[in-house]
## 1
Amino acid sequence: MKVYAFVGPSGTGKSYRAQFVANERGINYIIDDGLLIKGNVIIAGSSAKKAATKIETVKLALFSKEEQKKEIAEVIERYKPESIMILGTSDGMVDKIAENLSFPKISERIYIDQVATKEEMETARRIRVTEGKHVIPVPTFEIKKDFAGYLLDPLQIFKSKGRNEKPYITEKSIIRPTFSYLGNFQISDTAVKQIVEYVGQKVNGIERVSKVRVTETDNGMTVYIEVSIIYGCCLIEVLKNLRDKVKRELENLTAMYIEAVEVVAKTVIMPENMENRKE
């Protein structure tokens, strides 16, 4: 297995450019911040960006834990990659990662200033410092569950390689760990209920939301909803529409991963009786 290194100071745009650099060299596997990534899919590891302390972040990023080493070794044995690229903030860091994972000696090193201008690196660094934003080189759907409680945004990249050349297109994820400068945050059940009720008002066929129950899980939350529907509508379509909109709006507004939304129609209201209920 040929091992490459992509090196640059923290916050200068390595993860942003990682897939492009790897793609140009025909590398399909990347080690970045505790993760082993194949193409656009995380196949092993745990992101150091989720760590609660700086010490834990370093341990995860360097693959210092025995369970990490074992997991990566098993996946490498299964996939047998011909080449792999390690991202790190220094030569010492990438050498340590290669050593901890029992990889062959690094055969080629690419430095961030070889693929990014000084202005681009300064811009990336400013965004990291002032906005606390990090990039993970995989699509948002790949990490949404693992990063419940983080603010997530997809980032699509399109680079033209010139006339008659196939363009480079990929999607990355921007994350902002809310604990880093805002403190830990919690979403009250009342806030969730108000969001659900508001969404219910916008769905045709729903007369009102009568009950909302929120259950916390290890990954995020599940939401149970009871509604009154208007007679004459298509029951399945209305409930499905409400379920999908509630999940989407809750994830957008709270940054929490919604594991499941269950919607139950408890009451059917005749259109002619709606005015009386409002009174």
## 2
Amino acid sequence: MSASSEVPPKEVYCYLWPESAHRRYSMYENSEAFARKLDEADPLAHFRGKFLFPTFHDGEVVYFSGNSLGLQPKKVREYINEELDDWATYGVHGHFMSRRPWYSYHEQLTGMAAKVVGGLPHEVVVTHSLTTNLHLLMVSFYQPEGKRNKILCEAKAFPSDQYALESQITFHGLSPKEHLIEIAPREGEELIREEDILAAIEQYRDELSMIMIGGVNYYTGQLFDMESITRAGHAVGATVGFDLAHAAGNINLNLHDWDVDFAAWCGYKYLNSSPGGVSGMFVHERHANRPDLKRFAGWWGYDKQTRFQMEPGFKPMFGAEGWQLSNAPVLGMAAHLASLEIFDEAGMDRIGEKRDKLTAYLEFVIEDISNRNPDCTFEIMTPKDKSKRGAQLSIHAHGMGKELFDKLSEKGVIADWREPNVIRIAPAPLYNSYEDCYRFGQYLEEVIS
């Protein structure tokens, strides 16, 4: 089932800027000297030295793929080796005798992770993997009953989300075709209008059981107004959750104050915590002490005061910890600890401030090249408004297509290609520089000329 409105089709054209945007970026220069001045004035510039950059290319790379896999913090190797040493030294007793006891390892991450997503410590836990956590949460928060049995999501969500939502619906004996409402861009457009999301919530107000949307769309880089969506969902009696895979560590989140019911995110994109690394979960505190909520239980979610008595009957822990299944995957959490310490030192306010400036400069560089190359072959689909995006810019590569991407890769640009013709780039504020943005522009101009 889909919901969209018709508007006249949009012409395809090279990326053009409105006059206001020219005024907004008039202070910028597309030069190496200017980019270096910005880096010299950047209060977060020294954090770049805390990460390892790929060395497989002959020259220095421009790493713009933090929205797929973040760079490795230098302390990851140290922290994992410490756990390997403690394993060798203590064996099973490492659960209590290691320098960071494995029994409570996840608790070291909770406070720092809560700051990243704007939650209270008891609303957050780090465990499992992203889609696993989404399923565990939807078991509790998607409870179709009577005619209130539909899920609302954005069209072209990340495939894993799509599969998870469809399988949750079929698990309850329902049909995704009838019970999954997908909000698509209007005809001829690429971004979803938020008024269309709110209108669909109102349209299906008596039928919605749950709303589950990606906070930042992985393909376009569009950031949705999660607070407004949550408010609208609650007004019609639906539960509201978000997949924050492309938002956590990227967007300034405030899940508690936004009154979000649940959320999950991965640790390996903007949070730089190893391939397929551990995931975080948020459950609002109003659900913190609700043993009546249906859930798939595991012993690590059992009340830790009596967990080792191993009695029958599940008694969930207070807060998000009650959704845990198994004991901590320590080596993955060690990598996450190394990254979260960096986030804690930098602070999300400063990270967000640099994110906006860095992305704006990269956008300016692309626009400058576009203006000076009338036969340009790209256009940016990501919103221009900084309140509607994070660090990602998605570029249509018209004409050259994959050839353009391959040539950029040969020059040392590490980015992401999505069919049919989209290059996704993400200047991550903790380790990317303004000079990276300038160099990307130089490579882009060399390729298209």
